[in-house]
Amino acid sequence: MFKDEAYREAVKAYVQTIRGHLRELEDEYIVKEMMIRGEVLKRDFTKRQQNIIWFIYTFSFYYGKDKALIPRLQDFELCGIGRTKIKQELDKLINMNVIEHNELLSLYGITDPSKWLAPYHAGYNPSRSQELFLLNLRDAGVSVEKLIKNMKGNN
């Protein structure tokens, strides 16, 4: 990887970039990022598919962008997906509406999780998920009464 000094300089450059983007982020962007993380945990993705999602996520959201620039399919070897498998895994994620790919610009993006067609894993329980969501909001000091009322009104 980097030698000590080069590593420190790389971290410094990354932190400066991120600080600038964090100041500019809108609430909607932050919520989308949180929704993606939560949905990945609920879905029945293979390890390869998860690696691809997190790879795209890392080179987009962590840089304050909606899309990751990944010029070559071979670049996915950096997340453990070999060149003989990457095309079929990308196609599966595109067909499940999880990612989008602009071949001309070599851009990959993660789509709106509410549009994903990926199945939930066998252990996913929507009721318990909602309970944990509310429990942790409450624990963070957020008043959830109005939210609970609205949730009950939608059922």
Q: What is this structure's SSE topology?
A:
Elements: H1 4-24, H2 27-42, H3 47-58, E1 67-69, H4 86-95, E2 99-102, E3 107-110, H5 126-139, H6 145-153
Antiparallel strand pairs: 1-3, 2-3
Question: How would you sum up this structure, described in words?
Answer:
- The chain has 155 residues and is mainly α.
- It has two domains: 26-119, Arc Repressor Mutant, subunit A, CATH 1.10.10.10; 125-155, no CATH class.
- Helix content is 53%, strand content 7%.
- The protein is built from six helices and three strands; from the N terminus they run αααβαββαα.
- It has helices at residues 4-24, 27-42, 47-58, 86-95, 126-139, 145-153; strands spanning 67-69, 99-102, 107-110.
- Strands 1-3-2 form a three-stranded antiparallel beta sheet.
- The N and C termini lie far apart (52 Å).
Entry summary:
The longest helix is centred in the N-terminal third of the chain and has 21 residues, at 4-24. A hairpin with a 4-residue loop joins strand 2 and strand 3 (107-110). 53% of the residues lie in helices and 7% in strands.
Label the structural class.
mainly alpha
Spell out the helices and strands N to C.
HHHEHEEHH
Instruction: Look at the structure and give the mean pLDDT.
Output: 88
Q: Output the CATH class name of the largest domain.
A: Mainly Alpha
Question: What do we call the CATH topology of the largest domain?
Answer: Arc Repressor Mutant, subunit A
**Terminus-to-terminus distance:** 52 Å
Beta-strand content estimate: 5-15%
Helical fraction: 40-55%
Reported CATH architecture of the largest domain: Orthogonal Bundle
Strand order of the largest sheet: 1-3-2
State the CATH superfamily name of the largest domain. Answer: Winged helix-like DNA-binding domain superfamily/Winged helix DNA-binding domain
Give the domain tally. Answer: 2
The biggest sheet, with number of strands, parallel, antiparallel or mixed sense and barrel status, is: 3 strands, antiparallel
Cα gyration radius (Å) = 18 Å
Low-confidence stretches: none
Please state the overall shape, judged from the principal axes of the Cα atoms.
Answer: globular
Number of discrete helical segments: 6
Number of DSSP-assigned strands? 3
